[in-house]
Amino acid sequence: MTSPVLEVSRIRKVFGGVVALEEVSFAVAAGEMVALIGPNGAGKSTCFNVVNGQLRPDEGHVALHGRAITGLPARKIWRLGVGRTFQVAATFASMTVMENVQMALLSRRRRLLSLWPRATRLYRGEALELLERVGAADLADRPCGQLAYGDVKRIELAIALANEPALLLMDEPTAGMAPGERAELMALTAAIAREGRIAVLFTEHDMDVVFGHADRVLVLDRGHLIAAGEADTVRNDPRVREVYLGPETLAADEAEADAPGWAAC
Ligand SMILES: Nc1ncnc2c1ncn2[C@@H]1O[C@H](COP(=O)(O)OP(=O)(O)OP(=O)(O)O)[C@@H](O)[C@H]1O
């Protein structure tokens, strides 16, 4: 791997008696789509929160382009180029799509929101470019509250891109979407990541999305990274299959010549 955008080294995070992350290390390169998967409670959200500064790890280091960011405030890490999208897409429903993206650009440039009445003329060109990148320029003048959910997710992506992220953390990007829309959003994200050399780390429960769109897959189980590698290698890893399918199902599954892909886990 060329010098990574994100490097996570030997992270440990404990909540009371619960070890949420233990000795977790991995890296994500520019333009790479990496899925972070694992059963409920595996430590995925904790890992995201440590990377973006919402949580300080008990041990270990996080570096962005080789610069230590461990324990910096979340806002500072965001300014350094770590963006995040959430499971439930967050936009301002009463504002238009264009205004939502302009607002994100305004925030990036640290312009005062009290200038908003005049700001509606600011950054229109840039906002439109971002909307073109996510294929939503035709929605520019529609209030976000009137959009179909799949469209809101694309607008959320445009808002995240307004921050010019080097690293984008995506929390369950396709949650709540129809299967066809999921593939479309992930293909779009992968194309944008490659073109813009953006490192993308995403969590996802839909295994079709994971194995269809991730360049590499990281698997957490009870705070430990139990597998990391290309999709096919990870999919066939016995430990991973056991964690997802359980030992009994695994034995039955292995008896079949063509093991099916896993459904949503
Ligand atoms: N703020 C907290 N206080 C106490 N325990 C926590 C806290 N946050 C997470 N945990 C615990 O840490 C472990 C990892 O949780 P985390 O939310 O990171 O898992 P996850 O893989 O994101 O799960 P899910 O897929 O259900 O969202 C769990 O046992 C959880 O109960």
Automatic annotation (TrEMBL):
Record carries keyword rRNA processing: no
Instruction: List GO BP terms, alphabetically.
Output: D-alanine transmembrane transport; L-alanine transport; L-isoleucine import across plasma membrane; L-valine import across plasma membrane
Q: Name one Pfam family in it.
A: BCA_ABC_TP_C
- In terms of superkingdom, the source organism counts as Bacteria
GO MF annotations, alphabetized? ATP binding; ATP hydrolysis activity; L-isoleucine transmembrane transporter activity; L-phenylalanine transmembrane transporter activity; L-valine transmembrane transporter activity
InterPro entries to which the protein is assigned, alphabetical: AAA+_ATPase, ABC_AA/LPS_Transport, ABC_transporter-like_ATP-bd, BCA_ABC_TP_C, P-loop_NTPase
List, for all copies, the residue spans of the domain called ABC transporter: 6-247
Keyword tags = ATP-binding, Nucleotide-binding, Transport
Q: Which GO terms describe its cellular component?
A: plasma membrane
Q: Which SMART domains match?
A: AAA
Name of the protein this chain belongs to? ABC transporter ATP-binding protein
Q: From which organism does this entry originate?
A: Ferruginivarius sediminum
